[in-house]
Write a structure and sequence with these properties.
Two copies of one chain form a homodimer. Chain A has helices at 21-31, 41-46, 56-71, and strands at residues 11-19, 77-84, 104-116, 121-131, 137-149. By secondary structure, the first copy, chain A, is an alpha+beta fold. Chain A is elongated, with a radius of gyration of 17 Å. Chain A has one domain (3-149): Hotdog Thioesterase (Thiol Ester Dehydrase, Chain A), CATH 3.10.129.10. In chain A, strands 1-3-4-5-2 form a five-stranded antiparallel β-sheet. The first copy, chain A, has three helices and five strands. The interface between A and B is medium-sized, with 22 and 22 residues.
């Protein structure tokens, strides 16, 4: 990829990332973050959440994969930061006999927000949304910005 | 520990092992066994279980710790086998405001079942029980036998 071929405002693509409770259980074990808000509906509601929510770092990590794949190398991501604005509720599947699916879908799209020819880097800004408990899409990360070395 | 000091029928002790859903989430991640029967109440009931149950291998592993501590060395366990007879239901905590505790208690006791002076080994048989969904203690492992090198 050549900096000269890129321009500000250019899209690097869009991706839909399914998130299930099984993903959160796996992430809880991998991260060591066993906070029950990420796997226990009763507990999550008791502390005022709409239900089980994804780990913020899970969402952040899942979202940047779009940039990693675009850059072709995880090591090319020099900097990545974001603010967590809204939770990502991850509903259970419904119905007593239904298989274990349910879940949510996080939608990520990225665009070139700045180019630095001298440093040979670009900044990719991500728009990251997921449905809230009423099904309305919300920005779940803001100022999600990755600096990529070309 | 000296084989001559041990005799058949002798107790190596008893232990109560608390098991919570957080333990199962941790174990799911560590083992890679993400079967929802170990963390999803709805799913567990849908497949005919009394609720979320512990991983059999979790119970088996937790139970043998009594023998490991008695032997003083995990490497001294030469052989360990069991049959899984009853599930270990692990209830959620109760009440909307309650902290994330709940859970079950597995009770393990061990006794010397056989001595082999020539091989310098003993066989420890474990009795492993846990309350069923009605609160009645059940044998959850049978023929749980560990061969220990002295």
């Amino acid at each position: 990829m050549n900096l000269a071929e890129l321009e500000k405002g250019q899209s690097i693509g869009t991706r839909e990332i399914p998130v299930t409770r099984a993903d959160l259980v796996r992430y809880a074990g991998a991260s060591g973050d066993l906070n029950p808000i990420h796997w226990n509906e009763r507990f999550a509601r008791a502390v005022g959440l709409p239900g089980v929510i994804a780990h913020g770092m899970f969402t952040m990590g899942a979202a940047v994969q779009l940039v990693v794949d675009w850059a072709g190398d995880p090591g090319a991501i020099l900097d990545y930061q974001t603010r967590f604005t809204k939770p990502v509720p991850v509903p259970d599947a419904e119905g007593a006999g239904s298989p274990e699916t349910g879940g949510s879908v996080v939608t990520v799209s990225g665009k070139i927000a700045a180019l630095d020819a001298e440093a040979s880097t670009v900044r990719v800004d991500l728009a990251v949304t997921a449905p809230d408990e009423a099904g309305k899409d919300q920005k779940v990360l803001v100022k999600a910005q990755a600096v990529v070395r070309l």
